[in-house]
Amino acid sequence: SLAVTAGKTGVWDLDPERNTIFVDGILWSLIGQDRESCTVSMDEWTSHVYADDYPKLVDMTTDYFAGRAESYDLEFRMVREDGTLRWFLGRGEAVRDNEGRVIRLAGTNTDISDLKQMEKALQRARRDLEERVKERRSELETASPYGKATNGWTRNIEAIPYQRIPGSDRSRVSFLSLTTSLHSNRPKGKSKITSG
Fold first, then answer.
1. Do the Cβ atoms of 63 and 55 come closer than 8 Å?
2. Where does the chain show beta strands of DSSP type E?
3. Exposure string (b/e) for 66-75, b if CB count within 10 Å is 16 or more?
4. How many whole angstroms separate alpha carbon 75 and alpha carbon 70?
5. Model's pTM, two decimal places?
6. Which of 37, 43, 75, 130 is at a distance of 20 to 30 A from 150, taking alpha carbons?
């Protein structure tokens, strides 16, 4: 359908009894194969799954068939005809017999490669931002008389004696002690601003 095509989504239908899977033409095209909708062996289809993700696919299928997983839902990569990798979101729903055995598993694979690229870009941007904030904080601490660095008359705020503030259940630096301490450590000399 138009919705499936626009969403880069292909349809598949697994027959576990025969160990075959029906793959539609859209899904073949998403992995770079110029093929019509057809049924192939599971071995042929899974040969296109990226090797590092194959165990995850097997585990998901095994757990879902055994009833240990409530839904069939996973992200994995497939290898295109040109050797490039594409990310897919695979989802499926089983038809079971009276004894609970899966007799059919039908679902879709959606190409989410663009989404994965966006996630990577956002992660890089977040790391860059965190690094810039860290650098800026370090610069401010160095430049500020209230920061960690000292240059003669400035003092680390942590070195100011703590005072008990009435009504408080913990010791904090009072504004008076902070200003008094900083003022007493100013360099001697003119404090007035003169014009001319």
1. no
2. 9-15, 20-23, 38-41, 72-79, 85-96, 102-111, 163-164, 171-172
3. eeeeeebebe
4. 16
5. 0.62
6. 130
